[in-house]
Fold this protein.
Amino acid sequence: MRLTGFLLLAVLLLSTIAHFRAPEYDEAYSIFLTAGDPRPAWPSGVFTPTQVQDFYTGAPSFAAISRALKTDDVHPPLYFWALNLWRGIFGPSWFAARLLSVGFSLAALGVLTWLAAMLEIPVFPALALTLLSYGFAYTGIVARDFALAQLLNLLGVALTVRAAQGKSRPRALASGLAFGAASFANYLAVFTCGAALLWLALGQKRRRLALPLTLGLAVFAALDLPYFLAQKSSRMGQFAAFAPLHALALLAKDCGAALFGGLPLYAGDLAPEVAALLLGLFLASLFFVLRQRPQHATLLALAAAAPPCGLLALGFLFNNTPIELPRRRPAPPAATPDPRGPVLRHIRPRLRPRDDAAPSLGREPGERVEPARCADPAPLWQ
């Protein structure tokens, strides 16, 4: 009963954020790609929503989506195929597209419940820490591939633990398939699979499970390869040259933001004190976890360290810094009290049309445009 209540709270929280959070540029690509034209040619003069509604309502085939991704993107297709099917059933609205990610995130919380029970970790603290972390609340609602990749990676970790507990090769194969599917949603998800393989290799009794896991991963690696080869020259020069100290600083900020969002930035002159308080809270939590010594703690530590270490390795190998902080004004975790007012103030749409955008919205030049009424953000991407 308590678990049902928690999941209902998660539905309410994530759906509310999905409804009120401002649209993002990358989400527009997801919408337009699954409508048939990832980069539509917007009219240069005055136009009405009716004139551009076809940009949102197309129904491309899986093959057409694949061709567009290979030509003009750096992502594998699994999420976009799923979004294409979802929009065909539930309609072309931005909110409907985000609800697919909300569904993936709720499923991820269900898998986390199973994983925590297997590891004998208190379930509700694990669920609460995840749900109320800014990184989960953000990636769990945007119309991008993050939520699907997170779900599949969590499933892979859970199946790996289950396989190790029962010494089951079929479950190890299933975990490899889950990790492989995660990489088919987002290439970088493969780092977590690397952590699971390393953990299996480090245990003498677990070592024989590494091969079936690798075989499961290989199925999707073969599917990833044509997309990766076609896209390997895309976005050249997108990132700055690799600089170790700069990369480490970005990673530290990113990891902190994943838990606490931009809370220190809202503290003004007290930002150092707030940052120190949050760091102390994190270290105290880490000490508590280490003292409890949960089962398979090594796997959890490796899985947590794999993404940042993987990004550093990529940067070193390719001489770039593939670490992006969110391209938006930071916001606090969705359920964190804020001294300046209600939380909804920070998750309402914050886009401001340019002064010259009013004609594009079918209004007279100089007429005020209320941001909250800009239901169609596409003209802002011009």
Q: What stands out?
A: Confidence is low (pLDDT under 50) at residues 327-382. The radius of gyration is 22 Å. The longest helix spans residues 94-118. The CA atoms of residues 194 and 306 lie 7 Å apart.
